[in-house]
């Protein structure tokens, strides 16, 4: 996403000049982080922290209105750390931002009569529209807002119509702006192809080995979720006489779960937008149980809250301690980055490969990535001769693969990169050699034009043979 975000910085376009399937808004925060902090890994995390803090504050204010400030404060703290507990790898996806946009759109309208006005509905619609510019199905979160309008008390039919119109205009505004921008730049057809058509025609068929039953079972078997669900059920019961709150929240939760099922992959990060509505119901259930007379309900509620808090705080607190140890005590940033591993991925390997490339190239020397290691080229801050930022569109079976392969080979032959990076493959069990063998033209291009010069873990760097004329090109 950082690599694609760079397209905005260099006056180019996602989808047209850099390939990835997510919505156009996904890349803007990375572009901003790059402008402010350069090609770093930590710049985007500052944005993450700010967004998470604003989300938690909004969550606190909403739950405080429905319960008490203590419950609101705990829920805000728990939401912040529950997301953070997903860890560095899964929070790198844009799904937490989607969850944040939905919180800031929906929670201020609970209960609706205190906040319903056209300006507020337009803002909420705008936020939902932005969520749709990351992943289109999340536009369905607008159902919760429509229910808030329908269930609000004391409004005339025309007042409800006016609020619904404000909501629709707000939601449509970012979508229309994005379409107009890409059409003006001549990239709308490519955006539709990569962002809409490719996922339906190709990516949807990619099997993760997890069916719906397994995906849902794995989610509800998580200790935090298993602990929270009974309180969420109690929260639903507690809201039975407040339909103007109950139905918007239930629809919010249902839409978040539906979109997970719609994506069909059941990846860990896909569940992150589910956390907020589930936790909101759980906080309401905890408040209802704690208000029951006697010591036992209060003890049960407090104990569950402490256990939940300990579970969600442990991973981020461990990461913070690790940071202080490696960076503050040992002064060993290489060891710090090497501690971030997932399957074959090692953060320090990519960082070291990027440093090596940067030291052995000029700013216009190209780098092409075969695998999923776009981070190497991004950190090295070197141009890509092709719009394909990673291997998947050139590997997955589908109606676009033949054309994409011909396009990639044409670009590589016209502007041979100085370095060819072969690295991690997330979507298949193939080795690097096996995946290349399935693309004979690419394998021949590498075999006859490049020699392996250096390796960093599973990341291999191939340099263009000295007998070939160097070929620099503009970004």
**Strand sequence of the main sheet, in spatial order?**
3-4-6-5
Percent of residues in beta strands: 5-15%
SSE class: mainly alpha
Helix content: 55-70%
Q: Distance between termini?
A: 17 Å
Count of the domains = 2
Number of strands: 6
Largest sheet features: 4 strands, mixed
Overall spatial form: globular
Rg measurement, Å: 24 Å
Mean pLDDT: 93
Q: What is the H/E order?
A: HHHHHHHHHHHHHHHHEEHEHHHEHHEE
Helix count equals 22
Poorly predicted runs are 468-475
Fill in the keyword field for this structure.
disordered C terminus; 4-stranded mixed sheet; mainly alpha; 22 helices; two-stranded antiparallel ribbon; 475 residues
Tell me what the structure shows.
By secondary structure, the protein is mainly alpha-helical. The chain has 2 domains: 316 residues, no CATH class; 120 residues. It is 63% helix and 5% strand. It contains 22 helices and 6 strands. The chain has a 4-stranded mixed beta sheet with strand order 3-4-6-5. A hairpin with a 2-residue loop joins strand 5 and strand 6. The longest helix has 35 residues. The radius of gyration is 24 Å and the shape is globular. The C terminus is likely disordered.
Short description:
With 475 residues, this protein is mainly α. The chain has helices at 2-9, 28-37, 43-66, 69-84, 87-90, 95-106, 118-132, 142-151, 157-184, 188-201, 212-220, 223-238, 243-263, 275-290, 295-329, 333-338, 347-359, 374-380, 392-395, 401-414, 432-437, 440-449; strands at 341-342, 345-346, 367-370, 419-422, 450-456, 459-464. The protein folds into two domains: 2-317, no CATH class; 345-464.
